[in-house]
Amino acid sequence: MQLPQAFTEYTRKIMGEELFVQYLSSFDEPVPVSIRVNPFKAYSIDKDMATAIPWCEYGYYLPTRPNFTFDPLLHAGCYYVQEASSMFLAQIMKQHVHGDVTMLDLCAAPGGKSTCARSYLTEKSVLICNEPIHTRANILYENVTKFGVPNTFVTNNYPADYKKTKLKFDVILADVPCSGEGMFRKDNSTIGEWSEQNVEKCWKLQREIVADIWENLVDDGLLIYSTCTFNTKEDEENVQWICNELGAECLNVETKPEWNIVGSLLEGFNKPVYRFIPGHVHGEGIFFAVLRKHASGMTAKRNNIGNDLSSLHQITPESLAKASSVVEALSTNLDTKKYPFVPLSYEQAIAYLHREALTLPSETPKGMVLVAYNNVPLGFAKNIGNRANNLYPQQWAIKSTYFPNKNNL
Fold first, then answer.
1. Is the pTM of this model over 0.90?
2. 87-103 pLDDT, tens per residue?
3. Are strands 388-390 and 376-383 parallel, antiparallel or unpaired?
4. Dist CA 75 CA 33 (whole Å)
5. Cβ contact 204:155 at 8 Å
6. Going by C-beta distance under 8 Å and a sequence separation of 6 or more, which residues neighbour residue 323?
7. CB environment 78-111: b (16+ within 10 A), e (fewer)
8. Counting runs of H as helices and runs of E as strands, what totals does the chain give?
């Protein structure tokens, strides 16, 4: 693997020879495949074929990569395909986020960290998942909807828009845009996009983002800062800036030595930060820091989220054709007794996800019916007798015309 010379020289220097050699060795290894189970939906994983991810009780490594596209249970939101290192968010949530809170995931697409965070929030907590890029916000909306947990909203705004609203959050997750060094092994295209100039651009943008949303954080609130890069300019130096300029306190997250998480690589900076390095851990490169905002002496006003979100652009069912019905179908609050429940075979489930018309059993009542696979709802269909019209959103339909055999997945 040909890495940029400037990246190699700098990264070797900050990591040290031993860590850097381990990192280089990761390019000769298969990219790990991992999923995170949705604890709010019925799903059982074959634990003889999977290995638990130690820092996330819902996470598992798989021995090989299945054809996820053609697994109806993925589309039903029973699990999420997520890179293992990113699941360290689970430890942060368990140790530092308690009680009913209002949380903002500021740069949330495609939704891995949002759905992970939602797994550890109380039922009455509110999670706002935001993505500035509209096309990515639609993907985020799909994944959050499939996860199915109420009190979760999706918005499509820039950090500066949130600053204007003066909304207050107990927790803000800022998985900021970065130079992507930690993804070099997983996505080779990121190597060609890397440059020293882009690193400079990124660390400055990251500070702007944090500065924009800092006033949206309540006193004593938590900022979870994250990147998928290695360099200290975007990582430790930005955390140091947040501490020095904004008065934040860096919080400790308990870990275990066998997890092989690396601390600060910036000389003279010894505050708790958490870096995952491929080859040293079984995952991709990511960086986390947890910061508490010191109280200013003013009491933050609690939000009425329903009203306050009106000043922001939201991704709603109405903005996606025929998506409104599937929101109810995939919700964990769905009353399955409200609609006739029609189990589908594997072949029928894939046809449904292809958005084809279905022929249902003759005894199926006419009108709206809930179709399911393995007793897990996939969505609605309108049974008109000789066929059932497919109400699955066009935007979410499987595009491939390939039709697999279940045994070949």
1. yes
2. 999 999 999 999 999 99
3. antiparallel
4. 18
5. no
6. 141, 145, 317, 393, 395, 396
7. bbbbbbbbbbbbbbbbbeebeeebbbbbbbbbbb
8. 13, 16
